[in-house]
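Quick note —
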Amino acid sequence: MTDMKEKRSGLVSIIVPVYNAAQFITETISRVQQQTYDDWELLLVDDCSTDMSRELICQKSTEDPRIRLIMPKADKNGGAARARNRGVGEARGQYICFLDADDIWLPDKLQCELEFIQDIQREKAPDAGFVFMGYEFADGSGNGLGKVVHVPEQITYRQALKNTTIFTSTVMIDRNKIPDEDICMPCIASEDTATWWRLLKKYGAAYGMDTNLVRYRRSADTLSSNKLTAVRRIWNLYRRQERLSVIRSAYCMCFWAFRAVLRRV
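Predicted structure written out below.
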């Protein structure tokens, strides 16, 4: 992992796991380039894509030195968690943001979220290192569907067990407050949710910015679109990762399912 002294103050490292994302990756990169805050590096971690993703990224990286293609170390797909962890290890910035290859950031996303985390640290919690924001569901073309997910001002571990409202493409983490070993994700299903729970359990709370500057493409073939699979993944997190009792797992699951339905209807 990158040593603390190597992190450049103010630089935002944006980590994108890429697996056969040629359909979306050019737009995703362009949306980052349109950010009003321009002190960023974009780390696109290829996960053994078999389409044109790598070639498209290479073309963009020759045009903009802030864009970096990180090649796979293995010869087969290793999953989003492993790709994100590789990005964390390569990152040079003080701040980490995750962005999925098919999601969209509106132009003010980085600027507003950076100001938000700095305001939280200055006015409420000096040690705060984990923030997130609201988002809007979008169709396959990236057009907003008008269904906006609002987020609370603050969320704790116990609250998050019943409300997985933290969406990966909205997160910003200050590496001066949270070390890389805690940011890295376990290689399990729903690795992002497991990571947020771990951070909340260890650091107390995350702070939500109830502003919609992210669009989440929801298509029929996305992993989370399979409702039964989603239920199984969350249940396994409760029982195996968090080691909750059956009764408490069922209790949390009821709230989780209710809120998940509300977010999607």
